[in-house]
Amino acid sequence: MKCGGTAEAKDATPEVQQICDEMKPYAEEKAAKKFEVFAAKTFTTQVVAGTNFFIKVHVGGDEFVHLRVHRTLPHAGGKLELHGVQTSKAHHDPIGFF
């Protein structure tokens, strides 16, 4: 991975699911809809001043959303912030920077 670039996509981990669980209400607000299912499937990261997580989330049926979540550096509290949501995604849509 080059500095500032995104890593290869990989299967979601329990840590990534925990991030999704914490971000779900914010994602629902941005998407203006409720999600009955919110299961992280794959993700990639980008190291910046903190870490950006780009996460593909299954939200039911054949529908997916992509989340962009920023985690600040530890000295800044390691807080999570939802920076973007892409809706109407499919299983085959690649996850990456947006």
From TrEMBL:
GO-annotated molecular function: cysteine-type endopeptidase inhibitor activity
Localisation: Cytoplasm
Gene Ontology CC annotation, any one: cytosol
Alphabetical keyword list: Cytoplasm, Immunity, Protease inhibitor, Thiol protease inhibitor
Residue intervals of the Cystatin domain: 1-91
A biological-process GO annotation: immune system process
Official protein name in the record: Cystatin-B
Gene that this polypeptide is encoded by: LOC112231220
